[in-house]
Amino acid sequence: MLGLKHIHHIAIICTNYEQSKRFYVEILGLTLVQEIYRAERQSYKLDLAVAGQYQIELFSFPNPAPRPSRPEAAGLRHLAFAVEDIEASVSHLNSYGIDTEDIRIDEYTGRRFTFFADPDGLPLELYEE
């Protein structure tokens, strides 16, 4: 048996480090755990926590290759964050000029959700619990 326990982290490569750092820390409210500059790679590595759990690594690299990122493109579809009040969360994002899709209802769970994007167009979801 492989023995997987949980997801350790999610890695995201951004094109504008300062813009993405502001988005994930100031707008989404993730906690900055550690920031490292790796001179030999001309790369930052920012460790972020979601509600006290270290989960996201934000990387910067010079000239990263573009990747299709629409939710229906092959590969990772999107990253979803659980929220308690989807209207308040959408209002918060909109107050920063971040567009969100209309709130939808999951036909199987009855839960409400919406999509928005990070500064590089990575599809993100808010899912109300």
Automatic annotation (TrEMBL):
SUPFAM superfamilies: Glyoxalase/Bleomycin resistance protein/Dihydroxybiphenyl dioxygenase. PROSITE patterns: VOC (PS51819). Residues 6-129 form the VOC domain. Keywords: Metal-binding. InterPro entries: Fosfomycin_Res_Enzymes (IPR051332), Glyas_Bleomycin-R_OHBP_Dase (IPR029068), Glyas_Fos-R_dOase_dom (IPR004360), VOC_core (IPR037523), YwkD-like_dom (IPR037478). CDD domains: VOC_Bs_YwkD_like. Transmembrane segments: none annotated. It holds the Pfam family Glyoxalase. It comes from the Bacteria. PANTHER family: FOSFOMYCIN RESISTANCE PROTEIN FOSX, LYASE, PUTATIVE-RELATED-RELATED. This is Glyoxylase I family protein.
